[in-house]
Design brief:
alpha+beta; Nuclear Transport Factor 2, Chain: A; globular; 8-stranded mixed β-sheet; 179 residues
C-alpha cells in the first residue's frame, strides 16, 4: 500500500487561494497525480483550519481566554516554552486568563503557518511561527528574542471534531536571542 503524506506550504492559511504547493512527499511510489488527488481531497478541510487559525488569533486580540481555550479539545495538551504542561482545555483557559489580565494584557500576537502535514483526513500537523509584541512584561524564564519581541515556533496536532478543527497537542519552543 502506498501512503502519501504531502507537506504543503499553506497559501490557503495566508489568505492565498492558490492550490497549496507540495514541498515533500513521503511515498515509495507516489505519482504526481496521486499527490494532486490527495491535496484536492484536503481543500475543504484546509478552509476549516483557516477558520481555526482566525478564531485563535481573534481570541488573542480580544484577550478572551474562554474563546482562546475553545480552540482546544477537552483533553488538549499545551507544552509551554518552559516545558510546563497544561493538560486540558480548562487549564489552557485558566493560564490564558492570567496572561491576558497580566503580562500579555496589551500584547499583539501574529501567527503565520510555516507548513502543514496531512496525516489523515481528520488529522493535521501544523507548524506556526509566532511573533509577540506590546507585552507589559514576560513570565519568569521567558526571554525576548530581540528588544520588545518574543518569537516562538509552535507545533500543533489538530483534529477535526464535530465539523470543526481543534488543537489536540501543542508544543511551544522559544526562539532565543543570538549569542
Amino acid at each position: 500500500m502506498t501512503r502519501i503524506l504531502p507537506v504543503v506550504a499553506l497559501g490557503v492559511l495566508a489568505g492565498c487561494t492558490d492550490t497549496p504547493e507540495v514541498t515533500a512527499v513521503d511515498t515509495e511510489s507516489g505519482s504526481a497525480a496521486s499527490v494532486e488527488a490527495s491535496l484536492s481531497a484536503t481543500a475543504g478541510p484546509n478552509r476549516g483550519i483557516t477558520a481555526l487559525k482566525n478564531a485563535w488569533d481573534a481570541a488573542w486580540a480580544a484577550k478572551d481566554a474562554a474563546a482562546y481555550a475553545r480552540n482546544y479539545t477537552l483533553n488538549g495538551e499545551l507544552v509551554n516554552p518552559l516545558g510546563g504542561i497544561l493538560a486540558s482545555r480548562e487549564e489552557v483557559r485558566a493560564q490564558h486568563e492570567l496572561l491576558f489580565n497580566g503580562p500579555f494584557a496589551g500584547s499583539t500576537s501574529i501567527s503565520e503557518v510555516r507548513r502543514m502535514v496531512y496525516l489523515a483526513p481528520d488529522i493535521r500537523m501544523l507548524d506556526f511561527d509566532v511573533t509577540l509584541t506590546g507585552y507589559a512584561g514576560l513570565p519568569p524564564g521567558l526571554v525576548e528574542t530581540e528588544p520588545g519581541v518574543v518569537r516562538t515556533r509552535m507545533k500543533l496536532i489538530v483534529v477535526e471534531r464535530q465539523g470543526g478543527w481543534k488543537i489536540l497537542a501543542q508544543q511551544i519552543t522559544p526562539v532565543l536571542p543570538p549569542p
